């Protein structure tokens, strides 16, 4: 890769000009920027970088690609312009029934199951997508209509659907889909009614469900489903009741829960579940409170949290959780603030963020995060703006985006890649 030229602009009489070679990057607060202005700063405009403005303490600056190294005690503000890639979206066949608030699960044979949702009515009509033919097929109905539920592909290939809301109110019911027979069977009900909860498959094959709203407004409780017995059992409760949160399985087998909404509003808090003890431990807070965000476990083991809604803004910030030290690290900002979006880990290790709501409703834009650089690049936009949709990475590396709402409940499906 060739070196990037930097335009160096002196601020308050200070200047710095150097052809970069090595790097490291850290974002600072707006307060840091104020301090920098008072003691002199240098502005670097890197034309080839995506993302927004950063304030960087340095002693001398080197630029290679999109990174900046922290070496001295000056403060450097630089602006990076978004880069657009050429990867395109293509339409595939539409689902039979429009829907939002559904689930999307890639099965072990590569097909995709869409279940439940809402389109003015609570839905119990699932469909299967054949990635070889690009066609959707309606299948046997679930036992209960539901939205705001979870769907988990078990190690035996079956899909566990749990909770949600319907005309009967908040659900504690659960059922299993067997791809080998195409049948749904009722299994043991959860101990608490809940929707907008999370479900994570642990390394031992059990399913951990956390939080949600239902039996109480913002639930602290968590429970485990054991596929070998078909029963739910309570486990340790979280330190904070929450819904609209995320849960991510870490490489050490623990589960990281972040953000969401609770009794004190939008949470900054994060906590860890240890399956070996059944105990939750508070870990360091995120840099900002957020709900309706996404969380993706990267190939390097870190967890990337993107966007979401704060008490005053659609967030475009992103941050990384490093489980080896238990700390959050700021990383490049997205080009657009968004929530109700999706984030998909690609086969190349990058993360594709698509759609959502932000400065404009029903966003069609998409962007890519590269963990090797910490930078975002704008990529092709979907043909249909949408929020409350779902996305899954197919075995062939493409990403399938389904449904959502775009002024009307959507039937459209699109493929990225």
What does this structure look like?
This protein has 417 residues and is mainly β. Among the domains are: 6-80, no CATH class; 83-139 and 336-417, no CATH class. Helices cover 2% and strands 39% of the residues. The chain has one helix and 40 strands. The strands form twelve sheets. It has a four-stranded mixed β-sheet, covered by helices on one side. It has a four-stranded antiparallel β-sheet with strand order 7-40-39-38, with no helix packed on it. Strands 8-9-10-11 form a four-stranded antiparallel β-sheet, with no helix packed on it. Strand 12 and strand 13 form a beta hairpin. It is globular. The model is unreliable at 1-82 (pLDDT under 50).
Overview features:
single chain; 417 residues; mainly beta; four-stranded mixed β-sheet; 1 helix; 39% strand
The dominant shape is globular
- The computed structural class is mainly beta
- Going across the major beta sheet, what is the strand order? 1-2-6-3
Q: Which parts are unreliable, with pLDDT below 50 for 5 consecutive residues or more?
A: 1-82
What is the residue-mean pLDDT, rounded to a whole number? 85
User: Using DSSP, what is the number of strands?
Assistant: 40
Oligomeric nature of the chains: single chain
Q: Tell me the major beta sheet.
A: 4 strands, mixed
Q: Specify the number of helices.
A: 1
| C-alpha-based Rg, rounded | 22 Å
Helix content estimate: under 10%
Euclidean distance between termini CA atoms? 24 Å
Q: Could you tell me the strand content as a percent range?
A: 35-45%
């Amino acid at each position: 890769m060739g070196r990037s030229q930097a335009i160096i602009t002196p601020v308050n009489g200070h200047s710095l000009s150097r052809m970069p070679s090595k790097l490291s990057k850290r974002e600072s607060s707006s307060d840091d920027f104020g301090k920098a202005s008072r003691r002199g700063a240098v502005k670097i405009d890197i034309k080839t970088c995506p993302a927004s403005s950063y304030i960087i303490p340095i002693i001398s600056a080197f630029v290679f690609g999109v990174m900046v190294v922290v070496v001295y005690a000056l403060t450097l503000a630089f602006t990076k312009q978004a880069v657009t890639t050429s990867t395109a979206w293509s339409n595939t066949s539409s689902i039979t029934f429009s829907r939002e608030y559904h689930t999307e699960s890639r099965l072990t044979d590569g097909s995709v199951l869409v279940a439940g949702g809402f389109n003015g009515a609570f839905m119990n009509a699932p469909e299967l997508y054949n990635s070889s033919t690009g066609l959707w097929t309606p299948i046997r109905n679930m036992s209960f209509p539901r939205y705001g539920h979870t769907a988990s592909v078990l190690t035996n290939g079956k899909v566990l659907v749990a909770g949600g809301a319907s005309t009967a109110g908040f659900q504690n019911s659960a059922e299993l889909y067997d791809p080998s027979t195409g049948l749904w069977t009722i299994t043991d009900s959860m101990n608490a009614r809940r929707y907008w909860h999370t479900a994570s498959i642990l390394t031992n094959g059990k399913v951990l469900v956390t939080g949600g709203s239902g039996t109480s407004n913002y639930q602290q409780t968590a429970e485990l489903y054991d596929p070998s017995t078909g029963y739910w059992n309570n486990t340790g409760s979280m330190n904070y009741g929450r819904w609209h949160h995320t849960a991510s399985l870490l490489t050490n087998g623990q589960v990281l829960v972040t953000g969401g909404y609770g009794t004190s509003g939008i949470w900054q808090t994060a906590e860890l579940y240890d399956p070996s003890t059944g105990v939750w431990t508070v870990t360091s807070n995120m840099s900002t409170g957020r709900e309706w965000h996404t969380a993706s476990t990267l190939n390097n083991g870190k967890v990337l949290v993107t966007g979401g809604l704060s008490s005053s803004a659609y967030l475009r910030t992103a941050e990384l959780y490093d489980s080896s030290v238990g700390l959050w690290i700021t990383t490049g900002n997205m080009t657009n603030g968004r929530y109700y979006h999706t984030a998909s880990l690609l086969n190349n290790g990058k993360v594709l963020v698509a759609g959502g709501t932000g400065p404009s409703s029903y966003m069609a834009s998409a962007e890519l995060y590269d963990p090797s650089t910490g930078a975002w690049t704008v990529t092709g936009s979907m043909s249909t703006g949408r929020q409350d949709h779902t996305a899954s990475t197919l075995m062939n590396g493409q990403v399938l985006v389904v449904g959502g709402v775009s002024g009307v409940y959507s039937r459209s499906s699109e493929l990225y890649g």
